[in-house]
Amino acid sequence: MLTAFMENFTFSGEVNVEIACRNATRYVVLHASRVAVEKVQVAEDRVAGAVPVAGFFLYPQTQVLVVVLNRTLDAQRNYNLKIIYNALIENELLGFFRSSYVLHGERRFLGVTQFSPTHARKAFPCFDEPIYKATFKISIKHQATYLSLSNMPVETSVFEEDGWVTDHFSQTPLMSTYYLAWAICNFTYRETITKSGVVVSILNLMMFLDYVHTAKSSDFWINK
What we know:
It is a single chain. β6 and β7 (64-73) form a beta hairpin. The protein has no helices and 19 strands. It has strands at 2-5, 10-21, 25-31, 35-45, 49-51, 53-59, 64-73, 77-88, 95-103, 106-114, 139-143, 147-150, 154-159, 164-169, 182-185, 188-193, 199-204, 212-214, 220-222. The two termini are 38 Å apart. The strands form 5 sheets. An 8-stranded mixed beta sheet has the order 5-4-8-2-1-11-14-13, with no helix packed on it. A 4-stranded antiparallel beta sheet has the order 9-10-15-12, with no helix packed on it. A 3-stranded antiparallel beta sheet has the order 3-7-6, with no helix packed on it. It folds into 3 domains: 2-87, Immunoglobulin-like, CATH 2.60.40.1730; 92-187, tricorn interacting facor f3 domain (Immunoglobulin-like); 188-218, no CATH class.
């Protein structure tokens, strides 16, 4: 779950990671960079309950978050790791960053991601190396004046009275973190379906969508 505050370029997040413990250990180490971790919880299941966390710390030299437990995790067991954190929407082209454009004399902002090759750790704590693969289920909360996008289609959108909306996206296939992406913008889009049944969307400002055309053959092109 990610909540984006575009007015001051910050965001808060909550990640829930299911981890498989292969060897008994009192430590969980995963990648994290430029995030402020507020809380860490580890749980086995509803019956066994929580595993007490002795502490946690970020190690910037290797861009990792180290979680120290009060007891050893058992080998060949699954655990849930929950991390609550916050960070900046950076002004650089890595991680979760902001960009802008000018429309009718007004500068407008959007938030987008660039995680390749190992920059997902700047947006959320994760196992951020291409060898590690997982499925991802993303939820993004944003002001209703914006549109959120991710790899998968939106399953449900929950609108709140205070002008915010939470988009819950479908689960991704098994993949590396650098394939994950999301965007928060006030663009609009057009869609078509290719001959092979793939839905293709192109986003742009409303004023430029007249330059986007869909061919009768279901191929997609941009007419410049």
